[in-house]
Amino acid sequence: MSIFNKVFASIGIGSAQVDTRLESDTVVPGEEVRGIVHVKGGRTEQKVDEIYLSLHTTYIKESDDKKYTATATIDRFRLNDPFTIQPSETKEIPFSFILPIDVPVSIGRTKIWVATGLDIKNAVDPSDKDSLKVLPNSLMDSIFSAAEDLGFRLRNADCEQAPHGLRRNYPFVQEFEFVPISGSFRGKLDELEMVFFPVSENEVEIFMQVDRKARGLGGFLAEAFEMDESNVVLTVTRNDVPNLSQKLHAAISRYC
């Protein structure tokens, strides 16, 4: 094989190519993601040490009073043992993995994607990127519906750097920001923020921040010193779904 082909392959020209094809790009946390990785050989024989899939999202990070976007790896999966791909040869590697139950959902500006990489020694590693649309599971969907029943509208959703007290598996949390547009909390609250920490598919811990509306001089002073915010931790299971609106109302009402 021409030495020039080997040199070109080492810098990514004429080297192996990778293409991942997902069976479905719409998934729910806890579900199985399936697909096939297609590998096509380049101009020269190459040894592939590893094929890996990694799950990613972005989040807002703050440093020196400046905000910027960072990328976080949610999980990583190794697919194969080392193999050699011949020039123009095609290989198909099927895969499946379980989407973590605490993966962010595709709401607001939150993006989730699967990156595929080939680890080829002494060469530029080929890669591929495929977007996933992650939908809320039925329990989370019920919580959103309960908030809507109470007159709240989802205003914003984003992944942000997690304070140390809220940091779990990742350096970020996905925050959902609601505003009361009707119902008993309109005029009493400025906003309601929620962060979900799934325990299982049937149970979730909700961290809520209730931001009371400033009323009078005392209210404005409290708002100035951020004393108008109360933190609430609420555990919700599937058994709560029939009375979820009432449970949510009771938890928020204690701080209004």
TrEMBL record:
<dbReference type="InterPro" id="IPR009776">
    <property type="entry name" value="Spore_0_M"/>
</dbReference>
<dbReference type="Pfam" id="PF07070">
    <property type="entry name" value="Spo0M"/>
</dbReference>
<protein>
    <submittedName>
        <fullName>Sporulation-control protein</fullName>
    </submittedName>
</protein>
